[in-house]
């Protein structure tokens, strides 16, 4: 790894068209006694200011590890082995008019002062389980004030006022009273709102929401999604939205990154992904989900097999054992790279020519097998 | 309340098949004790006067948010827990109808093979120290099939039925993926040729790409074996996909029961309509449809007065605050418990023709 610690400081006007966060070829592996798990294996995407990027994938696809690698909060045993994460950070955290600098997060030590100042102030996290995220022995107000006091130069009294204000902003009624309650006294929906309030308390420019609505009911989920969208529009916060729920992604995201076993299969605008998916995995996934808009009791097209165990990940394209377009000697030999098939629409699949992104006229696995049997 | 209410037999014309199971005025209250003397201070009305029926060969979906009592209903039906009051009428193959709620443990044994359960968690519901053969053949052994070769043949047949290779019999559950484990759970549930299968969230722990496989398997098996399903789930799209008819529960009460198409296209209860609007759809071009329901789910320990839904209902009037609505049949086979069901025009979900294959 390069030992350059001090980032290059550029004047603000040079950066306005730059992405807020750029992830390039990020690889994070788990080194375990049983072997190496390549949890994130070459992930790249940009988060533009004020946009919502949805990362969607099934269990084991590396969506949460990507998030942890960005924040450098990986578990012991896991390491970033390659890649660059560049953040366009404000020099004075929390100040909207502050000058900006580019910081390579991957060059910072996870425990360094600078990294700790970025977590919470520039990038905040909305975790999945609000019950587990709050301490049960401190009031939620005290926990939010702790964040504010760490990152902002304010008195305790002012911090309390800020906490009450963000409580009000996320739609918690009677914020003056609720701030002194414990997390277990709040209902699921209120607890999730309190967590969002905590994440927003230092005016971060990037929120990472890791399955923020998975643990709550649909009617509460609709409230939380609406709230997140409202806050995002008002504050122009960028959000990385991680979920396995395609419905939630369709409702929230501007850009979508589809992941499978640590790799990006397809990325593009939400419209392109949902209306004009190009990767066989995305297409199959979209076909296989039951929808409230489809006819009842009609058989769904399925994806054969199941997700491979991380220790014996298939060679080549990780999806090839389940893919209906599998090409022997191609898909199982080497890993495909992301190719641009349309404007800002990338697919990692051998069906598309690496030179110009056009679809190759290739025979599918089924056709090949048929030919062989003749 | 109970003497004035009509039994829930469907009106003539709507009924195609007779009910296999009928639940009448089922209640299950869990006591809350406090203090050293364990004084009874309150009760959680987990299931509060639920009446429903399941016809032979159909799938009845039971849907609701967490804490609405849907799992408690399914457990009471199986007599895994004892109901506080109410009747659970089960019709046997020869036409005899028995009230399961009144039976004791010994008398229940005759009915147990006829009703089986598929569990939610494919990891927690299989004993890690038992092989697949032992897991699937245990109900056979318990019910008198003592010959090992006979059991082996039977288990092999069951595994083939659920789409697993018979060589897997000697393996332990850890060797299987979530979807395969759920197939093992289904094989075990089918071992005794049950007539009623209660599936409590059978796909919610599975990955999206595997859910469809298990749902398709359940549809296939239903056709092959003429099974009757009570399908409990919180996910409306999954329930819509598998059910012939759907029941919606809210805070221990049944708010609506109708055929799947009618319920989704023309809901008559404001809660059902709100629930459907809240489901995020996988379509970025219809983003403004999300409508949220204000407030929070009421606590079943202190439910509101009148209709339990009235504090969140935009159509609530004075009568809703004071009187508890009863479940009534407003059109054939469409049951609603809402005072204003006739006057309200609620939006449902249109079937998207594009999604048809």
Structural class of chain A: alpha/beta
Low-confidence stretches of chain A: 1-12, 363-374
Strands of the largest sheet of chain B, in order across it? 6-7-8-3-9-10-12-11
Share of helix of chain A, binned: 25-40%
Helix content of chain B: 25-40%
Largest β-sheet summary of chain A: 8 strands, mixed
Please summarize the sheet with the most strands of chain B: 8 strands, mixed
Uncertain residue ranges of chain B:
1-7, 9-15
What is Rg of chain A? 22 Å
Overall outline of chain A: globular
Strand portion of chain B: 15-25%
Q: Would you mind describing this structure in some detail?
A:
The complex is a heterodimer of chains A (374) and B (357). Among the domains of chain A are: 123-203, no CATH class; 277-291 and 317-374, no CATH class. Chain A contains twelve helices and twelve strands. Chain A has helices at 63-71, 113-121, 130-133, 140-151, 156-169, 175-178, 188-200, 218-235, 246-252, 270-275, 280-288, 365-373; strands at residues 21-32, 35-47, 52-56, 78-90, 100-104, 123-126, 206-210, 238-243, 255-260, 263-269, 338-342, 345-348. In chain A, helix 4 (140-151) crosses helix 5 (156-169), helix 5 (156-169) packs across helix 7 (188-200) and helix 7 packs parallel to helix 8 (218-235). The longest helix of chain A has 18 residues, at 218-235. In chain A, 48% of the residues are buried. The model of chain A is unreliable at 1-12 and 363-374 (pLDDT under 50). Chain B is built from ten helices and twelve strands. Chain B has an eight-stranded mixed β-sheet, with helices on both faces. In chain B, helix 3 packs parallel to helix 5 (178-190) and helix 5 runs parallel beside helix 6 (208-225). Chain B starts with 18 loop residues before the first strand and ends in a 21-residue tail after the last strand.
């Amino acid at each position: 790894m390069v030992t350059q610690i001090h980032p290059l400081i550029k004047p603000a006007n040079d950066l306005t068209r730059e992405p807020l966060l750029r992830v390039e070829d990020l690889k994070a592996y788990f080194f375990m006694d049983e072997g190496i798990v390549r949890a994130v294996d070459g992930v790249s995407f940009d988060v533009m200011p004020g946009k919502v990027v949805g990362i969607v994938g099934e269990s084991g696809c590396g969506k949460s590890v990507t998030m942890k690698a960005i924040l450098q909060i990986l578990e012991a045993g896991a390491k970033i082995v390659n890649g660059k994460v560049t953040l366009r950070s404000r020099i004075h955290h929390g100040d909207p008019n502050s000058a900006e600098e580019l910081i390579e997060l991957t060059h910072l030590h996870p425990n360094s002062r600078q990294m700790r100042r970025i977590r919470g102030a520039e990038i905040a996290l909305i975790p999945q389980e609000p019950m587990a995220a709050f301490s049960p022995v401190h009031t939620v107000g005290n926990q939010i004030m702790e964040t504010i006091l760490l990152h902002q130069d304010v008195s305790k009294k002012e911090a309390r006022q800020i906490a009450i204000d963000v409580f009000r902003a996320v739609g918690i009624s009677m914020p003056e009273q609720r701030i002194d309650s414990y997390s277990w006294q709040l209902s699921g929906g209120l607890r999730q709102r309190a967590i969002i309030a905590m994440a927003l308390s230092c005016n971060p420019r990037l929120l990472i929401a890791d399955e923020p609505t998975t643990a709550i009911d649909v009617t509460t989920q609709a409230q939380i999604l609406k709230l997140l969208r409202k806050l995002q529009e008002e504050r122009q916060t960028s959000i990385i939205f991680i979920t396995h729920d395609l419905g939630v992604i369709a409702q929230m995201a501007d850009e979508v990154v589809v992941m499978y076993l640590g790799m990006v299969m397809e990325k593009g605008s939400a419209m392109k992904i949902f209306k004009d998916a190009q990767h066989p995995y995305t297409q199959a996934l979209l076909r296989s989900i039951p929808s409230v808009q489809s006819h009842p009791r009609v058989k769904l097209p399925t994806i054969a097999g199941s997700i491979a165990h991380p220790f014996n990940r298939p060679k080549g394209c990780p999806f090839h054992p389940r893919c209906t377009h599998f090409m022997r000697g191609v898909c199982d030999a080497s890993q495909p790279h992301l190719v641009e098939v349309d404007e800002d629409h990338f697919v990692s699949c051998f069906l598309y020519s690496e030179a110009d992104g056009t679809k190759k006229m290739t025979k599918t696995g089924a056709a090949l097998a048929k030919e062989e049997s003749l | 309340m109970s003497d004035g209410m009509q039994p829930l037999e469907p009106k003539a014309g709507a009924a195609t098949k007779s009910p296999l199971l009928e639940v009448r005025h089922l209640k299950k209250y869990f006591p809350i004790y406090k203090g050293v003397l364990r004084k009874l201070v309150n009760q959680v009305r987990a299931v509060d006067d639920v009446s429903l029926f399941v016809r032979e060969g159909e799938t009845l979906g039971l849907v609701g948010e967490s804490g609405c009592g849907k799992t408690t209903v399914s457990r009471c039906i199986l007599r895994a827990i004892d109901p506080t009051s109410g009747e659970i009428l089960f019709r046997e193959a020869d036409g005899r109808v028995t009230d399961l709620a009144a039976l004791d443990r010994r008398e229940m044994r005759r009915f147990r093979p006829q009703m089986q359960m598929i569990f939610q968690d494919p990891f927690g519901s299989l004993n890690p120290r038992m092989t697949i053969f032992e897991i699937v053949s245990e109900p056979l052994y318990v019910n008198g099939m003592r010959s090992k070769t006979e059991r082996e043949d039977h288990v092999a047949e069951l595994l083939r039925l659920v789409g697993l290779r018979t060589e897997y019999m000697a393996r332990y559950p850890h060797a299987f993926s979530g979807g395969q484990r759920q197939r093992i759970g289904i094989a075990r549930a089918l071992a005794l040729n049950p007539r009623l299968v209660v599936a409590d969230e059978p796909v919610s722990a599975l990955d999206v790409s595997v859910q469809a496989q298990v749902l398709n398997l359940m549809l296939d098996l239903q056709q092959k074996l003429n099974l009757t399903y009570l399908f409990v789930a919180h996910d409306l799209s999954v329930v819509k996909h598998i059910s012939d008819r759907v029941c919606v529960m809210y805070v221990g009460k049944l708010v609506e029961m109708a055929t799947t198409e009618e319920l989704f296209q023309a809901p008559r209860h404001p809660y059902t309509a709100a629930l459907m609007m809240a489901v995020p759809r996988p379509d970025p071009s219809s983003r403004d449809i999300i409508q949220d329901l204000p407030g929070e789910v009421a606590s079943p320990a202190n439910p509101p007065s009148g209709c339990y839904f009235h504090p969140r209902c935009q159509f609530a009037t004075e009568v809703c605050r004071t009187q508890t609505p009863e479940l009534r049949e407003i059109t054939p086979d469409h049951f609603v418990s809402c005072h204003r069901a006739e006057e309200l025009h609620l939006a449902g979900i249109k079937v998207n023709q594009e999604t048809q294959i």
